[in-house]
Write a sequence for this structure.
């Protein structure tokens, strides 16, 4: 009887291992393709072939990567509207790890940013563009502009300088039928740790993470302020007898429950990547 029970246990362990093994599959390996000419940054797919697109069916995403001697180019297409809206709110962060771990060390955060006319002029001049007084006057007729921004960030998502590199990269996005297409470019030097502790060897693969969605600190503060205002209004109205359940901000714990519902889901995936050698 004991032998039978032991055999059943062994059989159960083998079956469990058989079921778990497929879930422990390695991240996809992505070999960047060499490009002889820079990619035109317009969020169009005409320069990218269907054969080089890699699919992540779990997120309805397709992506492809190219590089030349100085820059890495990445195309990302999202089909699902819920993922598209998350990107609109939080931007996209690429995480780089040369230790071959799915762990954040430093990243590049791409997002749309509102700036004043003066800030836009300053940015243009810092990038080497010549802006005439006439052009400045014309720009200042509009109080605010949306620019495509990129920050180097540490593992906490805080913007940090990257020594020796003036430009951080940029991107463009476009709606193509039901898909939202994003096209990115950034200097290969940004793959190196900004603290100088870890350099990416172009001849070796590294881990590359793609993350979007979730709730930014700014979104959390805005949600907390909104809940606080509604709480003040409710307390001014008095009366706990009007309590209508946990959705009512006057309810004990109602604020916490509402904040949880206001937090957005975060999406991410990791791949093993290697840049193409110079040809």
């Amino acid at each position: 009887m004991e032998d039978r029970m032991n055999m059943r246990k062994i059989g159960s362990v083998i079956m469990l291992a058989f079921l778990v093994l497929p879930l422990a599959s390695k991240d996809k390996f992505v070999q960047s393709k060499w490009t002889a000419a820079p990619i035109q940054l317009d969020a169009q797919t005409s320069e990218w072939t269907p054969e080089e697109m890699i699919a992540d069916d779990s997120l309805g995403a397709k992506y492809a990567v190219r590089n030349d001697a100085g820059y890495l180019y990445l195309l990302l297409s999202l089909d699902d509207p819920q993922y598209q809206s998350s990107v609109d709110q939080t931007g996209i962060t690429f995480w780089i790890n040369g230790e071959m771990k799915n762990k954040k060390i430093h990243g590049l955060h791409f997002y749309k940013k509102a700036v004043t006319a003066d800030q836009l002029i300053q940015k243009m001049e810092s990038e080497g563009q010549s802006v005439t007084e006439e052009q400045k006057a014309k720009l200042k007729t509009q109080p605010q502009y949306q620019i495509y921004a990129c920050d180097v960030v540490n593992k906490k998502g805080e913007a940090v300088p990257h020594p020796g590199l003036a430009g951080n990269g940029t991107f463009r996005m476009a709606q193509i039928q039901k898909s939202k297409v994003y096209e990115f470019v950034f200097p290969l030097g940004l793959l190196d740790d900004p603290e100088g502790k870890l350099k990416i060897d172009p001849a070796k693969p590294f881990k590359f993470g793609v993350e979007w969605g979730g709730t930014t600190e700014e979104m959390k503060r805005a949600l907390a302020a909104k809940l606080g205002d509604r709480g003040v209004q409710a307390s001014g109205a008095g009366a706990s007898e009007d309590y209508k359940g946990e959705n009512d901000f006057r309810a004990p714990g109602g604020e916490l429950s509402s904040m949880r519902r206001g937090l957005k889901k975060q999406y991410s995936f990791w791949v093993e990547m290697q840049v193409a050698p110079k040809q």
